[in-house]
Specification:
single chain, 198 residues, alpha+beta, five-stranded antiparallel sheet
Length: 198
């Protein structure tokens, strides 16, 4: 399995993303002294795709599959792509406030701490459906991470399409998100569609 091991802050600086988008509060201390070259149209489209892949922690082959699936769905392809990425279980865990970053959420899911509708789920790319009940396993709730989470209550509040109960570490999917609700992701999805349809 391929893993992206590029330092997160270095990658944020290269893509022009604020670290807060990833859930990190730390700012890079280095100043960007490079003179920015003018990007071609292809370069801008590629950069938008790289941003989306980096923010959601998805590699190229899987991202391409999401695009192909979004193309077959009714509606606007770019919006469908963003909605599919938002529906990933690791992203949902992050949005509910059960993890500080998407990378941490991915690890929580991989280690089997999450159940969906009472069944253990250890695949971070699993897509949630409307009405799915998501919670932290009872055995896992005694772990230090989840105890601290119950006490401190993560500052991130769940979006309108999710319902989260941080005291009991439970939540559910009320509906699918709209593109208007994904405003914190600085990606122009139309550029990604144009890149793939070349």
């Amino acid at each position: 399995m391929a893993i992206d091991r590029v330092p997160a802050l270095k990658r944020c600086r290269a893509l022009g993303i604020e670290p807060a988008v990833l859930g990190r509060s730390r700012q890079s201390k280095r100043k960007n002294t490079r003179v920015a070259r003018k990007l071609s149209e292809y370069g801008m489209q590629l950069k938008e795709k790289q941003k989306a892949k980096f923010i959601y922690g998805v590699l190229e082959r899987q991202f391409r599959r999401y695009y192909e699936k979004a193309k077959t769905m009714p509606g606007v392809t770019g919006e469908n792509l963003m909605i599919l990425l938002e529906r990933r279980i690791d992203n949902v865990i992050f949005r509910m406030g059960f993890a500080n970053t998407r990378r941490q959420a991915r690890q929580i899911v991989r280690h089997g701490h999450i159940t969906v509708n009472g069944k253990r789920c250890d695949i971070p790319s699993a897509l949630v459906k409307v009405g799915d009940k998501i919670e932290v396993c009872e055995k896992s709730q005694s772990k230090t991470l989840f105890k601290e989470m119950k006490e401190t209550k993560n500052s991130l509040s769940a979006p309108a399409w999710l319902e989260a109960d941080q005291e009991n570490l439970k939540g559910s999917v009320i509906r699918f998100p709209n593109r208007d609700e994904i405003i914190d992701i600085p990606v122009t999805e139309q550029s990604i569609v144009e890149l793939y349809s070349r």
